[in-house]
Amino acid sequence: MTSRFLDRREAGRRLAADLVQYANRADVRVLALPRGGVPVAFEVARALDAPLDVFVVRKLGVPGHEEYAMGAIATGGVVLLNDEVVRSVGVSDASVQRVLRDERRELERREQRYRGDRAPPDVAGRTVILVDDGLATGSTMLAAVAALRAERPAQIVVAVPVASSESCEAMRRAADKVVCSVTPEPFYAVGLWYDDFSQTSDDEVHELLEQAAHAPH
Length: 217
Hints:
Layout: H1 8-16, E1 28-32, H2 37-48, E2 52-54, E3 57-62, E4 65-74, E5 78-81, H3 83-89, H4 93-115, E6 127-131, H5 139-149, E7 155-162, H6 165-172, E8 177-182, H7 202-213
Helix pairs in contact: 1-2, 2-7, 4-7
């Protein structure tokens, strides 16, 4: 039986134990997918003694069924659309563009809220560990990986505490290395594997990033 996580911070500490090979390396950067990935990544970055920042990605939800992803967008102007989903649910081009416009606006708002005047991290030639609180469909993480490729990192490592075995496998085709601490069967949903899966607030994200920014490395 797979043990559940108490909360995202505890999940981050357990995930960090699977990433010890990246500890105390000057070339490593930890990037969190906000909001839920930030408390996880905070603990990972602290354990590895690595800098922490956010990589903002937004899911593109099907209109009327927003939890159902038809794609995602990420920093750097990357847009990933799942044409099969768009076709199967009959989303019009106009609806897709409307969702894109709204999510771009939210993506820009979050970048400003979380990072402020700090420049985005320089990841060229670095090993980047991309962290989220879990993988269900994986569309958001795939968008992050695609966007990061344009920044020419040496290696992209996707790391999550919990994932479906299917999305973990799919991620291996996109990233250079994938660490999924647990892949329970049946999976159902990320939140089922946390005792506390309450929403992470913008304030909490900002506070954790500020703490990390002032930590010695």
